[in-house]
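Re: the multi-chain job from yesterday

Posting the exact lines I submitted so nobody has to dig through the queue logs.
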Amino acid sequence: MLSPVILIPAILNGLLTGAVYALVALGLTLIYGVLHIINFAHGAMLSAAMFAAFFAFRILGLDPYVAIFLIAPAFFVIGYGLQRFVIGPASHGDDRNMLLVTLGLAVVIENVLLFAFRADTRTIDLPYAFQTIDLGFAFLAIPRIIGFAAVLVVALALGAVMTLTDTGKAIRAVAKEKVGAQLAGIDVAHIYAMTFGLGTACVAIAACLLMPTYYVNPTAGEAFVLVAFTIVVLGGMGSVAGALIGGLVIGVVESLSGLFLGESLGQIGIFLIFIAVLLVRPTGLFGAKA
Amino acid sequence: MWNRTPFSRREFLASTAAGAAVVATPSVLRAQGAGVKIGILHPVSGALSYSGTQGRLGAMLAVDEINAAGGIKGLGKIDAMLGDAQSTPEGGTAEVEKMNAANVACIVGGYASAVCLAVSQAAARYDLPYVVDVGVADSIVTRGLKNTFRFGPGFGTISKVAIENLAAINDAAGTPAKTVMIVHEDSLFGSGLAKLLNAQLPNHGFQILETIPHPTPTRDFNNVVLKIKAQNPDLVIPANYYNEYVLLARTMQQQHVRPKGIYSVLGGAASSYKFVKEFPDAANYIMDCNHWFDPKNPKALELKKKVEAKGEFYTYEVYMNYSCVLLVADALQRAGTADRAKLTEAIASSTFSGHVMPYGPTKFVNGQNEGAAPVNTQVQNKDIKVVLPEKFAEAKPVFPMPA
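And the result, structure tokens for all chains:
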């Protein structure tokens, strides 16, 4: 079992899978960092975005990678609208209420998807979905390599937005000190919505990266969100770099524990880390002290 | 409690959620008209909604056909009372109560074993005859319930036939397959099957290299496929649900793993037109032992055309439910009444052979149709062909898979 023939591909696959986890976690951590809530609707939004990618392919004939440029902005707008006109007003200025509103949203979105598209599992078949790069010691699936590269690009771009643009600076200001930011003339409701939009766009990109090799049904997104939550805790709540590193670590851990303990117990590794982080370093790898 | 909350938006969301749930789960819809009332009960919402909807489609095709021909002689048209088990045993039980209150003559359906177990028990309290469409758990018919009849084969029969046929196919090809790896989902269905395979395959000369369980859902099959690749078995036997099956088959193709054969039991690619249509390359030459229609029965082929004309896949839920409703209609006609006790007797003594399954005449022993059996199918030339038993076979099994 320790043979490098299995071990090396398992680690590489873990890294590639972890990148997509990281992207889902990136959206979650962004929203947490600024709004200080766990967005329970994250999984439902992922399912919705996967359906969007599916129908973009089926109806418009758009390759999921091309569809990113259509779906990510669309979901940014949807996320912005949801926060600005539904979640924000419904929570009456109390952040804790947002948590419950997102939970309600998750129920609504999932059931609307179920009503509209039924529980049927759908996949798309692309000619390159089965192609691999032969490294001699491992076959790496091309869609996963593309996904990995895309996640790195998105993370870098997001980092640049956060440090270089005025909006990014405002987001960080609101995250640090909401009242202070408000006094300095920052429109907090707008920044909240911008953040929610960015987080939702991250999930939309993740959906497009997943579709070439994964399936979609109304609850497909759920499977990713629990893992993403662990990554957020590991990387540090609200940290972009933490989400990226955390995602890669969790991907490898999941892959290796699946290999050694069996797939049924594969997730044990993830949740052991979850507990260990909470015990030893509750702020996570890159998290600031609360 | 909602009255006291100041959050109007939350209230709105909550009511919308409830509204969406109600719209998504139509519970009991009643077709109009007099005649004889039959309960058609499936999980048309929730996790099993696809299978449940397919089952309802099959049952309604039979009802419409019978009614178009004037109904049941002496009793008039069938009034189908549709029920939704919501993919849970409790949902199924609740529908039995409603159907009993509406005075149905009998209930057809159930689909999932857990639902069938609950429904049969609830129906037994009212001496309400119940015909199980699919539910394979053997305990459905071994509890001595007089009202419960299963038209299809149970788990014990299916796995026995699957193992015997596998050995027969392998022997006929000169025993090219000696080593086996089993990949199974870790709930009752997959684990039970893996246990049976582990106990019986060695008796037929197979060596089991490894048995790999995985949860449902599993997002990634790379590790499993790497293990298969490292051990290089002659035969891979998957026992899992559709989503995982798709991922496993795709990952095997991606990692260039080509065993001499892929042989699945209950629910593989070789019994899914959907999989064959969407992944013709990954599906090619996969073999399966599952419920299937009689390919030499013109009525079965006519029904296939009808279902495909509706844009639906011809899945086993469709033709099994279609057959079950015909079986009940035949019993009603012979009983000449909708009286539950007389109908139960009529079903128990049924020798009905006008169905579309490869079962021969019906014969119930303690509620189980003794003629019921699965068949072996294989994906050949982008189509699904029955390869065993010979009586129903349309093609010879191709084994080992051509390189």
